[in-house]
Amino acid sequence: MSNVQKWVQLDTQLKIANEKTKQIRDAKNTLTSRICEYTRDKQMTDKIDLSDGNLKIYEKKEYSPLTYSYVEESLRKIIPNGEHVDYIIKYLKDNREITTVQDIRRTTTK
Fold first, then answer.
1. Which of 34, 42, 57, 105 has the lowest CB atom count within 10 Å?
2. Domain end residue (candidates: 43, 60, 77)
3. Phi, psi of 32 (to 5 degrees)
4. How many domains does the chain have?
C-alpha cells in the first residue's frame, strides 16, 4: 500500500472518529444540562454516588477566547487615543511568531 493510500485511509478514519467524538460530546453535554437542572430543581445534594466513585456537580467559569477584537475593544476603554490603540493592535498582529510548514489538505468530490 502506498503512502498516499495510507494517508487517505488514516484521514478517513480521523474524520469518522472526530464526528463520533462530536456526537458523544454533544450527547454528554445534553445529559449534563439535564442532570444539573434536575438536581437544582429537586434541591438535591451536589454529589451523586456511583458504584465506582461519585459525580460532583459544581459551577465553573468559562472564559471567552482572547481575540484581537476583544483586546482592541478593551484597550479602547482604557486608552483614549484611538491611534495608539490601532498602533498596538497592528504591532501585536505584525510581530506574532510565524512558522511555515508543509501540510496536505484533502478535498473530496461527490
1. 105
2. 60
3. -60, -45
4. 2
Within this chain, do residues 51 and 74 fall inside the same structural domain, yes or no?
Answer: no
Angle 82-94/68-78 helices, nearest 10 degrees?
A: 150
HEC profile for the chain? CCHHHHHHHHHHHHHHHHHHHHHHHHHHHHHHHHHHHHHHHCCCCCEEEECCEEEECCCCCCCCCCCHHHHHHHHHHHCCCHHHHHHHHHHHHHCCCCCCCCCCCCCCCC
pTM: 0.71
Q: What length is written for the chain?
A: 110
Rounded Cα distance, 76 and 81, in Å: 8
